[in-house]
Write a structure and sequence with these properties.
Rossmann fold, globular, single chain, alpha/beta, 3 helices
Length: 152
């Protein structure tokens, strides 16, 4: 399945975390999820659902100030959660080790508009937006994903 488009209604934080857990269950090393959305739309909440499902960490901190948090998954792989909100220049990205992470880790990237030329060709773009009293998540894939997303 190439260039998949999925939409989910998220009435509350628990639904957002549950979607994160469902998505986390299909991710493997080298998978990159770009989390788009305004402040407060649930990017970190969704990432926490993925981290809990993959790593068992239920109180994952936001990487807003540290820029990057790294975790070991249950299967012994590496998960990287980055928040690029404070990145002002593309050159700063080299110091974060994203190139290495993109090759072998599961990557969750908040504020991916800061990636510039580092934007990976194979990725999931997950857009979170407010729709009245609930949030909407729209997932679109770029590159080959097989049928992995049919299980989300």
């Amino acid at each position: 399945m190439t260039n998949t488009q999925l939409t989910f209604a998220l009435p509350d934080s628990a639904a957002t975390e549950t979607l994160g857990a469902r998505l986390g269950a299909v991710l493997t090393p080298g998978d990159i999820v770009l989390l788009h959305g305004d402040l407060g739309t649930g990017k970190t909440t969704l990432a926490r659902g993925m981290i809990a499902a993959l790593c068992g960490v239920t109180d994952a901190p936001s990487p807003t100030y540290t820029l990057v948090q790294s975790y070991d998954t249950f299967s012994g792989n590496w998960l990287l959660h980055a928040d690029l909100y404070r990145i002002e220049d593309e050159a700063e990205l080299q110091e974060l080790g994203l190139d290495e992470a993109f090759d072998g880790a599961i990557c969750l990237i908040e504020w991916p508009d800061r990636l510039g030329r580092y934007l990976p060709p194979r990725r999931l773009d997950l857009h979170l937006m407010q729709d009245g009293t609930q949030r909407i998540a729209q997932i679109s894939s770029t590159g080959e994903w097989g049928d992995a997303l049919t299980h989300v």
